[in-house]
């Protein structure tokens, strides 16, 4: 079952908000990285490069958590626990260029490494917690 992202919190996934992505390491520990993200109305979208630790972790265990904290009000946040339901290279280059434009006003993405293969991950929300005070 897909959990809904409240409309009043979707800006935390569609604006230039750095989110924390938690994945599971092979030894069972948690890895947390700040990442750029997007939202397609159903899935949280993140992007990385093939063979990075995040990539290996999400391929081995698709259960992830995304935490978005409002940069203007740290007491307003959104936690999305979910499952990576698609891992694809299709559209990943365009996606990272769109994120780069949104977050740093540069397109194409300026930090691509030679031979790098970009990967797009679609995360299906299964549990959503939103908070504001």
Kindly summarize this structure in a few lines.
The protein is α+β, with helices and mostly antiparallel strands and 133 residues long. Helix content is 19%, strand content 41%.
Give the key terms.
alpha+beta; 3 helices; single chain; seven-stranded antiparallel sheet; 7 strands; 133 residues
Structure in words:
This protein has one domain: Pnp Oxidase, Chain A (Roll). The chain is α+β, with helices and mostly antiparallel strands. The chain has a 7-stranded antiparallel sheet. The model has no long low-confidence stretch (mean pLDDT 97). The protein is 19% helix and 41% strand.
* CATH architecture classification name: Roll
Order of helices and strands: HEEEEHEEHE
- Gross morphology is globular
Number of helices: 3
Largest sheet: 7 strands, antiparallel
Q: Give the C-level CATH assignment.
A: Mainly Beta
What is the terminal separation in angstroms?
Answer: 28 Å
Residue share in β-strands: 35-45%
Number of E strands: 7
Structural class: alpha+beta
Strand line-up in the sheet with most strands: 2-1-5-6-7-4-3
For this structure, the CATH topology is Pnp Oxidase, Chain A
Number of domains: 1
Round the mean pLDDT to the nearest integer and report it: 97
Helical content stands at 10-25%
- Gyration radius from CA atoms, angstroms: 14 Å
Going by CATH, what is the homologous superfamily? Electron Transport, Fmn-binding Protein, Chain A
Low-pLDDT runs: none
